[in-house]
Amino acid sequence: MGGLSGWSGSMLALLLIFSMQTGNGLVNAAGPPDCSFIQSFPSVEPSGVYTIQPDGFSYSFQVYCQMGANGLWTVIQKRTGGAVAFDREWAAYKNGFGFVSWDHWLGLEKISAMTKSKRWKLRVDLWDFEGGSAYAEYEDFRVGDESTNYRLSVGRYRGTAGDAIKGEYPGINQNGFGFSTFDRDSDGCNPCIFGDIAINSCTDFDRGGWWYSKCGSASLNGDWHPKGDNIGWSSGLHWRTWKGPAPYSAKATRMMITPM
Ligand SMILES: [Ca+2]
């Protein structure tokens, strides 16, 4: 009898785990192509982890769906602290890393697949250490495939944080640029001259991986810095049209997308 109850207990535990994993209400195992397809119900907190499978993508994967204007948005980046390292190589930025329910980078291959068809909007949310926040939204957000180094395309901007992607200085514009990591460089610097400093790789200073173009004004995948030690670092979570002139590293960031 002891063995039987042990077996029953194991089955119950398995059933509970299964229920938790499928408790998001999805019937289709592969899931919808993005979070905007997920219906929310008034009695249930809609934001959470779901399984999706973009059109033409060969496998399903988990994402965090965040409630926003017009329903659930698919989160592609989140930073809230320094526990998840963002100073990673090309393959990591390609495939994604971290924890989708927490700090993570979803992965360029997934973002590229999602934005290949339809028109998409990108929303960037920024939080400072003083209780403030700001946002930037871009129409027609798209990331090319790996043959383009996951080239960034953004259209019309609106928001309160300023348009750091298109930049604050003439000739420095991340729109239309490929992605760079320390082991794959398409940042347009060879070298770039800033004052009396010659820079060959933006990742040496800004760190992380980003669509660096002569480095530029946006950089949200650098090193996270704690309160009181977050101003003046060349690396950080920078959105230079929002805070400056000394580099200000944000307390938290989030990037998410939805079809337009
Ligand atoms: Ca370079």
UniProtKB/TrEMBL annotation:
Keyword match Iron-sulfur: no
Signal peptide stretch: 1-25
Gene3D superfamilies (UniProt xref): Gamma Fibrinogen, chain A, domain 1
SMART domains named among the record's database cross-references: FBG
CDD domains registered for this protein in UniProt: FReD
Domain Fibrinogen C-terminal: 26-260
Entry coiled-coil feature ranges: none
Alphabetized UniProt keyword annotations: Disulfide bond, Signal
One GO-annotated biological process of the protein: negative regulation of T cell activation
SUPFAM superfamilies: Fibrinogen C-terminal domain-like (SSF56496)
GO cellular component: extracellular space
Matching Pfam families: Fibrinogen_C
PANTHER family for this protein: FIBRINOGEN-LIKE PROTEIN 1, FIBRINOGEN/TENASCIN/ANGIOPOEITIN
Name assigned to this protein: Fibrinogen C-terminal domain-containing protein
